[in-house]
Structures are given as structure tokens and as C-alpha cells.
Specification:
Largest sheet: 4 strands, antiparallel
Number of domains: 1
Distance between the termini: 19 Å
Number of strands: 6
CATH architecture: 2-Layer Sandwich
Shape: globular
Helix content: 10-25%
CATH topology: GTP Cyclohydrolase I, domain 2
Order of helices and strands: EEEEHHEE
CATH class: Alpha Beta
Oligomer: single chain
Structural class: alpha+beta
Amino acid sequence: MTALGTHLHRPISADELVRWPVNAMIHTIQFDSAELTAVCPVTGQPDSYHITITFTPQGWTIESKSLKFYLWHYRDEPVSAEDLAVRIADELAVRLETTVTVELDQAVRGGIAVHVQAVGST
């Protein structure tokens, strides 16, 4: 596991996400990013996404910089929006030990917008 404060400059796996204890008074945590990209498995073209990650912490949260580098590891991976949402939700649910909802909005290509919601649980 990567330690809090470690200088990260590379893509990381879910197992390397930096997490730390969160106050029990926190009900919901939400992360938003427009910097998620992956490769279309059909065309090989890059797909860009806006991602929203929401969870009720059961003792843990994720350090935002490590989340950025975790999302970065998908940039060269051929994966559909639907599969990407499920993979991220499942991996984060395991790391956070709680249910995680992931919403992906794929940038419009060919005049069609794609919105996917997936729920991962432990």
C-alpha cells in the first residue's frame, strides 16, 4: 500500500489507493472528476468521461491525489463505459469496505450521450 504523503507520479491499482480513517459523523463523501479516459474497445479511439463516486464511509475515505492516479491507470485500457463503471465501483467498494456508487457520463461521440450508473458492494 502507498503511504499518505508519498509522492505519486504513476498510475496505481485499487490496492495502492491511499485511505485513512474518517470521522463517524460523515454521512456521504462524493468525488467528481472530468479527467477519466479509457480506450473504446471497438474503435480504439479515446473516450473521455465525467465520473462521480459516492459512498457512505464505514470508517475509511480515499486521498484525492491517489484517486486521480488510480483513475489514470484506465487511460490505455480498452473498456466500455458500462464495464468501466462496474469495475471502478467494485474495486472501490472492496478498498473502502462499503457500498460505492459510480456514475459515468461519456463525452458525446457520434451524437449519442451515454450515462451509466453502477453500484459495487463488498
